[in-house]
Amino acid sequence: MSFTLAASAEMLHTDLPYTERVTRLHDAGFEVEIWNWTTKDIDELVTTGARFSSMTGYITGDLLEPDGIEALLSSAARSVEVAEQLGCPRLNLHGTGLDGRGLPVRPVDVVTPAMWLTAADTLRRIAELGERAGRVFTLENLNLAVDHPGTPFARAEDTLALVRAVDSPGLRMNLDLYHAQIGEGNLVELTRRALPWVGEIQVADVPGRCEPGTGEIRYGAIAAALDAADWQGTVGLEGWAATDTDTALRRFRDAFSVPGFTD
Q1: Taking the CA atoms of the chain, what radius of gyration do you get in angstroms?
Q2: What SS3 state is found at 260?
């Protein structure tokens, strides 16, 4: 396969101290994804020698409100500094700030045309920051039905539209197929259309948000489509282990390592 595999230290090996989780994933041959960097010992993470695939690219803020925009830009700049320490190429964003339960800090019921224009302008400023720093911010799609009700610009189609509108190498889409399956479906076609704008793909099965092979998504078919498109990006497992992490990682690797595998 022409793409690389990463795994979330937030959701796997959860019985271990955080740095040990990172080390275990690295030793197993995976790049590592992390979330809120303010809760981590960054110097300690550097010593693991792990390759970090992505991290949260902001701490507070949103795309729409004046105070939220300034907070977003400020915390994104701080996140870039940490990304440079870790050698992390991608910094993840959402349509608005999320609380500890994954719910929007500022819920939005109806996204107006003015909101679309404001969000696109904010993301252009974020993209410029990424370009200057040699990093890529990725805007992640989320689902509204189960995990993130009230989040603006959550659907994959919305996220893709904003990334295309900004049209900058400093901003790409984090195509999360777990969220897209819940909200939209038609994953192979969605993936094919989005690939020119995708910075990373994240996966987990539905229902349950566990590793491929535990639910309804035929991830082998998606792997085959990526292989046929000669995509050379990163696929990250952002899901829980249905039984244990070693089994989850094996199932994930199997689903995304066999060209032409469709079942």
Answers
A1: 17
A2: coil
Q: Tell me, yes or no, whether 261 lies in a domain.
A: no
Stretch 230-236: mean pLDDT? 94
Residue 247: domain span = 4-255
Q: What DSSP letter does each residue of 176-221 carry, written as one string?
A: EHHHHHHHT--HHHHHHHHGGGEEEEEE--TTTSB-TTSSS--HHH
Which residues make Cβ contacts (< 8 Å) with residue 45, sequence separation at least 6?
19, 22, 34, 52, 86
Distance from C-alpha of 203 to C-alpha of 189, rounded to nearest angstrom:
16
Decide: residue 168, CB within 10 A, 0-12 exposed, 13-18 middle, 19+ buried.
Answer: middle
262 domain residue, yes or no = no
Q: Which residues of 196-235 are buried (b: 16+ CB within 10 A; e: fewer)?
A: ebbbbbbbbbbeebbbbbbbebbbbbbbbbbbeeebebbb
Express each pLDDT in 105-120 by its tens digit: 889 989 999 999 999 9
The CATH number of the domain where 85 resides is what?
3.20.20.150
Bridge-based pairing state of the strands 90-93 and 4-8: unpaired
pLDDT digits (tens, 9 = 90+) for 191-230: 999 999 999 999 999 999 999 999 999 999 999 999 999 9
Within a domain: residue 72? yes
Rounded Cα distance, 170 and 76, in Å:
13
Q: Where are the alpha helices (DSSP H) in the chain?
A: 18-27, 42-47, 66-86, 113-133, 156-166, 177-183, 187-194, 219-228, 245-255
The domain total for the chain is 1
